[in-house]
Design goal:
- By secondary structure, the protein is mainly beta.
- It has one domain.
- It has two helices and eight strands, in the order ββαββαββββ.
- The strands form two sheets. The protein has a five-stranded mixed beta sheet, with no helix packed on it.
- The radius of gyration is 16 Å and the shape is globular.
């Protein structure tokens, strides 16, 4: 599997990459799951979500993808009663936010290693705990590159 495009998360006033796709839990629970166009090997799920955390609650703000019939998707495609944003009450798990420079590139999923990882433990859409892990420091002047991010948003460099 190719390294994957990250979901985007607005967290603590910043846009960051999120190496967790909370919608996969919604689909696994039997939520409406449209047939996404899987034309890009770096986007096997077929969409990119834009999320935010407000008052410790996780919300889906935007959904970008194309269905197999060519129709563009949005939050309203999945949640017609909540077209502008929807509370992610279905999601319980850990949100992974990579931070800093990439130390090791792995051409698979979200397996690359970054200087730091931030983990948000979420229960039914509410952040209950935050943990950080330090993985090392990139060499000074090293051009290790960044993870793959859509919309020109690198999401990792300089995050604190």
């Amino acid at each position: 599997m190719t390294a994957q495009f990250a979901e985007q998360l607005h967290y603590q006033g910043r846009d960051v990459a999120m190496h967790t796709p909370p919608l996969s839990d919604y689909f696994a629970m039997g939520g409406f799951s449209p047939s996404f166009d899987l034309s890009c090997t770096a986007l096997w799920r077929g969409y990119i979500g834009r999320w935010e955390i407000v008052d410790s609650r996780l919300y889906l703000l935007e959904l970008h993808g194309t269905l197999r019939d060519g129709t563009e998707t949005s939050v309203a495609t999945l949640f017609p009663d909540f077209p502008d944003r929807v509370f992610a009450h279905w999601y319980s798990g850990t949100i992974h936010i990579p931070r800093g420079k990439r130390l090791d590139y792995v051409h698979m999923g979200y397996d690359s290693t970054f200087e730091q990882d931030l983990f948000l433990d979420v229960e039914r859409g509410v952040v209950k705990n935050t943990r950080a892990r330090h993985n090392g420091t990139a060499e000074s002047g090293s051009a290790l590159g960044d993870a793959l991010f859509p919309h020109g948003n690198r999401g990792n460099e300089g995050a604190t």
